[in-house]
Amino acid sequence: MGKITVVNNVTLDGVMQAPARPDEDTRGGFTHGGWAIPYQDAVLAEKMGEMMASGNGSLLLGRRTYEDFFAVWPKRANNPFTEHLNKVQKYVASTTLKEPLPWQNSVLLNGDAADAVAALKQQSDRGLAVLGSGELLKSLIRRNLIDEYILLIFPTALGEGRRLFPEKESVRLRLVDSLTTTTGVIIATYRAT
């Protein structure tokens, strides 16, 4: 059975919306986009590179994240992540997209996202990494399908924005590893209990 790992940027108050760019996700009038940029350092880049290099799995993305990644990553030159993101198998949960998907190695999941992911997890012995994909994550969290969370916890609180964990959902985790960057970002690995 495959393992599902969430890899996400979050603020101290759990916001995961638009860490990379001001225009990344302005839903709900969100004006804090790009909040993670000031905290980038060599430690964070190295750790993310190690995770990508050691990964033998696939990506699992929601529609918004897939479309955003496709708009940005295939065009980035001189970036160590571009080649990996282009080559890796990508599974996309969407009720509005149609095949064929434009980004190489992309497959559209059919039907209910949580059901499709549960079936994929059962059929595979490879890992699935979820990046971003807040709406997809909510359905996976409700179904207890996530095995591990690698959270990049940034030393900032925004007071508003879309959060990682759905309201009124209880999630029990156990810390298994952590690393602090030079800018105060904590890279924490948690396993579901």
Could you characterize what this model shows?
It is built from five helices and eight strands; from the N terminus they run βαβααββαβαβββ. It has helices spanning 42-54, 63-72, 80-87, 113-123, 134-142, and strands spanning 4-11, 58-62, 90-93, 106-109, 128-131, 148-154, 173-180, 186-192. It has an eight-stranded mixed β-sheet. Strand 7 and strand 8 form a beta hairpin. The radius of gyration is 16 Å and the shape is globular.
Task: Give descriptors for this structure.
5 helices, alpha/beta, 26% helix, 193 residues, eight-stranded mixed β-sheet
SSE inventory with pairings:
Elements: E1 4-11, H1 42-54, E2 58-62, H2 63-72, H3 80-87, E3 90-93, E4 106-109, H4 113-123, E5 128-131, H5 134-142, E6 148-154, E7 173-180, E8 186-192
Parallel strand pairs: 1-5, 1-6, 2-3, 2-5, 3-4
Antiparallel strand pairs: 6-8, 7-8
